[in-house]
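Supplementary Methods, section 5.1.

A reviewer requested that the exact input to the structure prediction be made available. We therefore reproduce it here, unchanged from the version used in the analyses.
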Amino acid sequence: MNSTDSRYQHFALVRDMLDTPNIIAKFNPNQATDVAAQIAEVGQLLLTGEGSSRIFPAKNAIALARRQGWPLALHTEAGRQSKEYDLAKWAVFALSNSGRTAEVIELYQSLRERNHSHLFSLTAFPDSKLGSLAHRAFVLSCGPEGAVAATKSVIEQALFHRALLEHVAKKPALSSQLATLGEQFRQALTTAIPSDLITKLTNARTIYWAGRNDGVAEELTLKTNEITRKRSDFLEGTYAVHGIEEVMDSSDVVIWIDPYAGSMAKFDDVLVKGVKLTVIAVSSQPTPFPTILIPDAGDLSGFVQMAAGWNILVETGINLGINLDKPERARKVGNEFVG
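The structure derived from this sequence is encoded token-by-token as follows.
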């Protein structure tokens, strides 16, 4: 992604993305320390939301907590399914960029009716409907987004959840990492993508994203639909070589986030040699596949991987001649609460 070329700067989506490194650098990781103490006392936390407000923010934070062995019981589910659960002994944290998402509002209304006492929210706007139902409401600092696809808000939401869980575990570390992360994010966002790979993606029937269940590849699958208007699918773990190859063809592309070293030979054998499709890796180290190299951000690598994915998708969308800001059917608020 070229940060100075007018072809890119024309789009609000690109401007939102390029705002993100500064949002990361200026993020306040200590704004919810009191709520973290309450959650630690409860001992169980459900992270809810819809679409982009849940996939990366919740799943990336949960993956971190599990890798670190933090004792807090964590789960994530969308609003309607969460409404079917017994949450009496759980703290609940809902994210909604607009604060008007119907599913989470209905969940919070039902929990309020049962006198639930640990409901928290994070939205992009003050005085939102969701915020009015929470016992403590927080507001993003990134401001409104100019495009339909959520980008900078997703990253701030993910930082918020990460900081919250660090404080619950009494292991705050994010503050000293933000400046470096912002710069690494910028590098991944603006690195040049080889033109032959963009041509492959432009001509692909389906763009698959493979990777861990940590929110990165799954969120980029959604962004593929919004930004390139192409069909996409999330292939968790090594799902890409466990049957779906039966319906793949040589025009398809698999973008593999942080490949497992022990699985590369199998992907090459089944997908590259067998299906004759293209596998592109996003990694901090070389792989046998065409590789988008990104900085190694340690346990913050998910954020840098996301930036690389945005970069790939913007390049593909521009090559396709698409209006990146205005999908034909997708809406900024997926299912808006009315009532």
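The beta strands are 44-48, 73-76, 91-95, 119-123, 136-139, 206-211, 231-236, 253-257, 278-283, 291-293. These observations are discussed further in the main text.
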